[in-house]
Amino acid sequence: MALPHLGLYFFLFLYLLVGAWTFARLQFIKMALPHLGLYFFLFLYLLVGAWTFARIEDATDRRHQFEKLQRVRNAYRETATAASEACPISARNPNFRPHIYASLSKLSSLMEGREFVLNADDESQDERLFSPRWTQMASILYALSILTTTGYASATPTTLLGQWVAIGYGLLGIPLMVLAAVDVGRFLSEVVLATYAEVGINLHSFKI
User: Which ranges carry the Potassium channel domain (predicted)?
Assistant: First the structure.
């Protein structure tokens, strides 16, 4: 008979503890609120920058990759043709040309750092061989690399517009990042001082 009541009392006791913990931490929440606006704006600035870079650069990057793929395909054909002329007897084998393409694909995979298999007569696979650089994560990392001045990114702008946007983005974003870093230090110092004061008061009351 007592079990249903114990559950209610336990929940009420837990609710009391959570409420007490929340009210005890309200001062830290009040301390954090003024800082959250700057962090939120910086985060929004990061996302807008990443979206802008992706919109500007993605189409151009895909076009460059397509042109590069066509050059690679032409080089494969020229190599296969030269090999056929140098080895006319072996070239009679129907597997000669695919074998040349397979060997060249191994070299391309080594150079690209990913699987790159180009078939002799299948041009419908071109889209599958693309490796988009301006993905969502790559765009965010590039925007973040500008804000943090690390310079580490897997994609960089190749268009004139993208390069000018990157300059303007950095001119405004880097000072914002510095302000945020200074603000983080100030906030941490406030938290440490408040915590130290609270611990001191508790220790003093405990001694009394």
Answer: 131-189
